[in-house]
Amino acid sequence: MEEVSGPWKLVAMIACIGIALTYVLILYVPTVVFRLPPACSFKNFMIRRFICAIVSSILSIVISTLFLPVRTWAVSYLPSVYGIRLDHFWQAVVFPLSLTSLMYAGSLFLKSLLLVDSWKEHGSSGGGLPFDSCKNISERFLGWLSSIIFNVLAWRNYVVAPLTEELVFRACMITVLSVEDLKHLMSYFFALFSSAWHI
After folding, report:
1. What are the sequence ranges of the domains in the chain?
2. Which pLDDT value is given to residue 1?
3. What global pTM score does this model have?
4. Which parts of the chain fold into alpha helices (H)?
5. Whether 169 contacts 20, CB under 8 Å
6. Alpha helices in 29-85 (DSSP H)
7. Is 126 in contact with 196 (CB distance < 8 Å)?
8. Closest by alpha carbon to 123, among 134, 114, 111, 138?
């Protein structure tokens, strides 16, 4: 790889700061950035934040693409530039998303404990045949699963936040820093901006 000059390194650092600030600020000021009226409900507010996170993620991909020395823009090649490869899918996508989602697993674990507790309560109260217990558990589980599917907080905690954070802070920022030969700054940038986002 050819040596990168000082101004491009500075531009890469400014781009990383811009990517991080855009992601953080666009989540907290959607009414200012898009000039939308205030949300009428919490669900609408969260859906707006989802849209803002997706827009910011797309913007981050576009900005980081400007730094890539890519000769071909084939759709099959571009995901591998950001670390999304089918040959290492587990290491590149599933494992980091699982680790990020692990922070939000407490509510999922609590729901599981409540389900087990209701099963024990049903069994101790002479709840009938084992088939009835299994039927009750399956009905409760399906009810619990549907409440999670339609819960915007669950979508934020388990899907939108981990996916967009990994894309912006890991894929885009690290790609820009590694292309501009600033690998020694990767851990500092990643730690600083991903922790500032969680404040």
Report:
1. 6-197
2. 43
3. 0.65
4. 6-28, 30-33, 42-65, 78-81, 89, 95-102, 105-124, 130-149, 152-155, 161-165, 173-179, 186-197
5. yes
6. 30-33, 42-65, 78-81
7. no
8. 134
